Amino acid sequence: MSELLMPKVQARIAAMGSKGTTYDDKTVIDLVFKRYQENCERKGEPLKPDKAFVDTIISNLKVFIFAGHDTTSSTICFSLYQLSKHPEFLAKVREEHDAVFGADPLAAPALLLEHPHKINETPYTLAVIKETLRMYPLAGTFREGSDETVLHADEGGAPVSTAGFDLIDGVWELHYRPDLWPRPYDFLPQRWLVGEEDPLFPVPYSWRAFEHGPMNCIGKDLALLEIRLVLVHVARRYDFETAWEEWDKIQDYTEANIDRLRGDLRTRK
Ligand code: HEM
């Protein structure tokens, strides 16, 4: 990863400060360099990033790629899986896409390029994604315990300090708690569309797919947008079904092949 990322970072360093260099506010790498240049100019320091700075950029880029890649792609797979199991919800998704983007699925990409905000007119699709993330929350998180964060037992008793512990959010348990989520094992996109008076209405703060607060997922909006876009592009064009048996049939699970794959992994740099 470092080998792939380094040339891009070095190219950005070389361009920094040259006349005509512009920054794209929508890329992580440019946001970093823009801020770095502004700081140097304010302090009257030369634009000379040291090794620690470059290493920090590379580490952060890796975190973004790691945190943003499999989470998003797996949510796409789980959404399509759930839609394949629930034709009635798939029909509603398709109906929504027809209404917003017209009857021709192939026309949607051009329409979206011209009117990107139209993606916001797909609340049912968003409900499907949020319900998918409730049932398959892909990432958890933890925080460092401290004397300020104490635990109270339901039965009472003295509060217990969490200092010296790491606190894990337990998002899977939370997302399946029947007191918070009626019918927790049912895939019900309508939870996300009903009013407060409905028992299905989500209890505030109980959905933690991206966690909450100042440390929550920085890519939340991007991820939801990407997944919505993918669904708009594929939900009407393809029928999906799971095919594990077919997949298994075309795999070579012989010991000789497994040994070969292990060998490939060991020799890969
Ligand atoms: C469905 C997709 C995604 C899910 C479910 C997800 C979930 C999460 C969760 C639960 C956290 C922990 C937040 C906390 O500690 O409070 C997190 C952190 C983070 N996410 Fe996401 N995320 C997704 C997509 C993305 C994308 C697309 C990006 C970037 C392009 C991204 C970048 C990050 C970063 C940089 C962090 C912080 C890591 C750190 O604290 O070191 N995520 N994400």
Automatic annotation (TrEMBL):
Q: Which GO terms describe its molecular function?
A: heme binding; iron ion binding; monooxygenase activity; oxidoreductase activity, acting on paired donors, with incorporation or reduction of molecular oxygen
Tell whether Transmembrane is among the UniProt keywords: no
The alphabetized UniProt keywords are: Heme, Iron, Metal-binding, Monooxygenase, Oxidoreductase
User: Where does the signal peptide begin and end?
Assistant: none
Give the matching Gene3D superfamilies.
Cytochrome P450
Task: Give the required cofactors.
Answer: heme
Annotated binding of heme, by residue: 217
Q: In which pathway does it act?
A: Secondary metabolite biosynthesis
Q: What InterPro entries is this protein classified in?
A: Cyt_P450, Cyt_P450_E_grp-I, Cyt_P450_sf, Cytochrome_P450_monoxygenase
Name listed for the protein in its UniProt record = Cytochrome P450
Q: Which organism is it from?
A: Apiospora kogelbergensis
